[in-house]
Amino acid sequence: MPKVVFFLVPKLHLLDLAGPAQVFFTANDLGYQHDLYYVAEAAEIVTAQGVPVKAQLDWPDLGRDDLIVVPGWRSPRLSPSAPISAGTAEVLREHHATGGSVASVCSGADALGAAGLLDGRRYTTHHDLTDELAARYPKATMVRDVLYVMDDRVITSAGIASGIDLALHLVAVRCGVEAAARVARQMVVYARRNGEELQESAMLRHRGHLSDLAHRVQDVIDRQYTCRLPLTELARGAGVSERTLTRIFTTATGLTPLRYQQVLRLERAEHLIGHGATVESAARAVGFEDARMLRRLRARD
């Protein structure tokens, strides 16, 4: 079971911690298991909002499938140095060097920079801190006005609520985009994606609506998009007429059920082709009888 370790610093923002932690906690409830840990350099951390948080002092054993997340702390302006010890910086460096992933929310990027993990990489942070961090870490490339950036297992996010978006992206990468969509729906948040690898997944791009019926039909299509899914069967499963299903689904997602399925197939086929598959083998893998329909869809899109 992969571990997710949150490293806590004094005056951390509650939502920077609670948002991503809730994503992984909800994923656990849905069967996508992670072990959650909370580590700090003191047994108790007082958050920016005044709530004390207990933490363990010892790091668990970490492997390449595990993730360290550094939530942000209250920092209208950055302190002269990141509030982490040399020992913690070494843990971050060593974990990444051995194949693990390291993430930050908001000013947590300062901790990654102090550990040398931003050098030569693209990253982002809260808009109030971009100029300061860009000056502090000139060997790194600041990406402004995005929710999060992923570069060689170093994942940074803009701050506060964007930590939820970052965590949903990581669930999508680790457990699949359907898992991330289910978590977002359970948390009653938009499954937002923005500008980086996998962030434009169709399974999430068309989930930003409040129609429970459309979500339930999308769940079916997401699981079985390589199969033949007649509208009559989808409507029967949803308990509505074909006409009603088409109207509600199209209003919610902007696509008909058939077009939504085609978009999923096309997206997966493009991924396979990008990784060396032929058009013919990609077409078969996503459920087309031959490559003609796939070629037509690629030409149209």
Automatic annotation (TrEMBL):
The keyword Transcription regulation applies. One of its GO terms (molecular function) is DNA-binding transcription factor activity. Pfam families: DJ-1_PfpI (PF01965), HTH_18 (PF12833). InterPro entries: Class_I_gatase-like, DJ-1/PfpI, Homeodomain-like_sf, HTH_AraC, INH-QAR. CDD domains: GATase1_AraC_1. The keyword Transcription applies. Keywords: Transcription, Transcription regulation. This is Transcriptional regulator GlxA family with amidase domain. Residues 215-301 form the HTH araC/xylS-type domain.
